[in-house]
Model the fold of this input.
Amino acid sequence: MPTSEWMPETMEAPAFAGFPKEGLDFLSQIITHNSKAWLDAHREEYERFIVSPNRAYVEEMGEHLQVLVPTIHAVPKTNKSLFRIYRDARFHLNDPIKTRIGIIFWQGSGHRMQSSSFYMHYDPFEVFVAAGIRNFKPTLLSAYRNYIQNDEQRTQLHTIFENMKSKGFLLPEPKYKRMPRGCDADDVHSYLYRMGAVYTYTTFPPGETFHSQAIIDRNFRTYEAMFPLQQWLYKLTLRCDTDADVFR
Done:
């Protein structure tokens, strides 16, 4: 599997001016020509229309997000705020290249995917903007379930969920059918124990705003509205050392 994404990550990104339409065209071509050989042959387009604007977006959005979270991680590098374009070759022999682009900004010292974050991905058909944690691994799941056994925390999370829905945002469905052992199935907010992730999101087609600098303001306003949930989760992660597998 490749270990780099071609563009030298020490190069200064140009000012962000929107995600180019050519980038979506490029992703559409991957759907038809999904191979490392094809991507290698089109590396210049990949760098120009995908990598360069993504890095510029991370830098500018990172500056905006510092208003909400001064310690936000906004790192315009692969495996940091930028996701790899390659899928895991062990499971994707026939489609090794991703057809959507992910970008993440996270808070805290844990792994980016187990930290409370602001997130976006896009493909030729949809832009997905979210805040929270999109999948609890066992350690964080255990910490979450312990955390919401506190009546105040459980009620607060339910209230935040209702607030997100009132703003038109969407929420994931509970992942688990069975209640975890030791949790009160009769509690009015018992559905929270069956969640396998906690985040809120919205989607929209990649129109003219997406292709202009205005996407910064649109996404920032979305993240600002989602901020209460992102912060509730950040407080949860402060109690969970995901590296040492310890709940404190």
About this structure: The domain at 21-243 is CATH 3.30.930 (BirA Bifunctional Protein; domain 2). Residues 1-7, 242-248 have pLDDT under 50 and may be disordered.
